[in-house]
Amino acid sequence: MSVKRYESLSPIALLESVELDRRTVELKSAQCFFTQGDTADSVYCLARGHAKLSVVSPKGKQTTLMLLSPGDLFGEESLTTVIAQRTVTAVAVNACTALSIKRGEMLRAMHQDPAFSDQFLSLLLMQSMRTQADLVDQKLNTSEQRLARALLLLTKQGRQGQPQIMVPPVTQEILAEMIGTTRSRVSFFMNRFRDLGLINYKGRIHVHKPRLEAALVDQFAEI
Asked: Domain residues for 183?
């Protein structure tokens, strides 16, 4: 298969396009794919549902690093040259289905098919850049700006070109963990966003994406 053919594939389709000994993992809400400190022996690709990556500090403080959507890869630390330990915990937010590939099997496929390896590493790099942007966001922006950015990231699975995009089911507690603030602050900002016409609630959060993007650029000046 050519490099161009691989480039047209989604992460799930890419993993299904090569001969891999993979298994399907199905989890219920709050179940763990793996826990911080476990042996990193598999890489995953989320196919359905949403999950979160969290870390616990030596002092016991837990922080959510990232909310995963269908197509996201995780557990890539298993592909290092030495068998490593999990640095985060991956937990299902709701019912999830994911592909799981053992470390040795993935390394074999990558060595045998350089075109597949190049595309897979490209996907990992893009996700790493997103994670770095999240860390910069945590350090440099206000809680309100971080919440706006988190909501925009959560709309990535919506239909592009639509002014309103529905955010996957997510609680204010998880949003608070994602941006490093309290649930009460998230509630305050969400009400402000609604009053400004940036979002609305209809059972789930609907984001007026162009308005929220403009407000984020303008740092929430009156619009």
From this structure: 142-217
